[in-house]
C-alpha cells in the first residue's frame, strides 16, 4: 500500500515538472523564432565603393572642365620653317602658344570600369614665330618681332574612359573641332616697350573643321574633383587651299568636377 502511494507521488511530481518545463519552453520559443538571423558581412573587392557613390556611378553624371593648352603646329611646312630658322642662327625661332580650354561633359557608364564621355568646350591653339636682331651688340635692346597664330575652336570630343583602379583611368577618342576665330597678331617692340601691335584676320584661309584624336590619363577623386593630362593629335591639314601642310598639336592639363 505504501509502495503504491510512493509510486503515485513520484508520477505526479514527474508530470508536474514536465508540464512546467513545457510551459516555460512555449513562452521563450516565440522570441527564438522571431529573432533575426545574422547575415555574413559582404565581401568587398578592390573596386567596391560606398552606396552613395555606387548610385551615382550607375547613372548619367554631368561635369565641367577647364585647363591650360600648350599648342603647336606640325607638318612639312612647319619643318621648312624650322629649317629656315636654323639658318638664321637664332634670329628666327618657332615657339609654342599657351592658351586655355573650358567646357562641360556628360559621363555615360557602360560597365563596371568603362565610361563614354562626350563633351563640348572652347579651346585655344596655334603657334608663334619670333624674330630678333641677329647682332650681339644690339641684344641689350631686346628688339623683336612676334607673329602669333591665335586660333580658337569649339571642340566636340567623344572619349572612352577605362578605369584601372577606383580613381585612375586612361582615356582616348576622336574629336571634331570647329574654327570660330583665327587671327595672326604681329607685335614689334624693344626695351620692353611695344612699338606695333595688329591683328590680321586669316580665318577664311583655314579649314573650318579640324579632326583629331586625343588621349591621356587622369584621376577622379570621390568628392567629384578630378585631374587629367592629355595630347591632341590633329589629322586635318589646316590650310583650306592646300598651299602648305600643317596640323594642330596640343598638350592639355585639366581640372574637372563631376556633379
UniProtKB/TrEMBL annotation:
<dbReference type="InterPro" id="IPR025665">
    <property type="entry name" value="Beta-barrel_OMP_2"/>
</dbReference>
<dbReference type="Pfam" id="PF13568">
    <property type="entry name" value="OMP_b-brl_2"/>
</dbReference>
<protein>
    <submittedName>
        <fullName>PorT family protein</fullName>
    </submittedName>
</protein>
<dbReference type="InterPro" id="IPR011250">
    <property type="entry name" value="OMP/PagP_B-barrel"/>
</dbReference>
Amino acid at each position: 500500500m505504501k509502495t503504491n502511494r510512493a509510486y503515485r507521488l513520484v508520477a505526479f511530481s514527474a508530470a508536474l515538472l514536465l508540464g512546467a518545463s513545457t510551459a516555460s519552453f512555449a513562452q521563450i520559443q516565440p522570441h527564438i523564432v522571431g529573432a533575426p538571423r545574422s547575415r555574413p558581412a559582404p565581401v568587398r573587392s578592390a573596386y567596391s565603393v560606398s552606396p552613395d557613390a555606387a548610385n551615382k556611378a550607375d547613372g548619367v553624371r554631368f561635369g565641367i572642365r577647364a585647363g591650360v593648352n600648350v599648342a603647336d603646329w606640325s607638318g612639312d611646312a612647319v619643318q621648312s620653317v624650322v629649317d629656315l630658322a636654323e639658318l638664321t642662327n637664332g634670329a628666327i625661332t618657332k615657339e609654342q602658344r599657351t592658351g586655355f580650354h573650358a567646357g562641360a561633359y556628360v559621363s555615360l557608364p557602360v560597365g563596371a570600369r568603362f565610361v563614354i564621355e562626350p563633351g563640348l568646350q572652347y579651346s585655344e591653339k596655334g603657334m608663334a614665330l619670333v624674330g630678333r636682331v641677329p647682332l650681339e651688340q644690339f641684344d641689350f635692346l631686346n628688339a623683336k618681332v612676334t607673329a602669333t597664330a591665335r586660333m580658337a575652336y569649339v571642340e566636340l570630343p567623344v572619349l572612352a574612359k577605362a578605369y584601372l583602379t577606383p580613381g585612375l583611368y586612361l582615356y582616348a577618342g576622336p574629336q571634331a573641332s570647329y574654327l570660330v576665330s583665327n587671327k595672326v597678331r604681329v607685335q614689334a617692340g624693344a626695351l620692353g616697350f611695344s612699338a606695333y601691335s595688329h591683328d590680321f584676320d586669316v580665318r577664311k584661309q583655314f579649314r573650318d573643321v579640324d579632326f583629331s584624336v586625343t588621349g591621356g590619363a587622369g584621376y577622379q577623386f570621390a568628392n567629384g574633383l578630378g585631374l587629367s593630362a592629355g595630347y591632341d593629335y590633329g589629322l586635318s591639314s589646316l590650310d583650306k587651299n592646300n598651299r602648305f601642310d600643317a596640323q594642330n598639336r596640343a598638350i592639355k592639363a585639366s581640372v574637372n568636377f563631376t556633379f
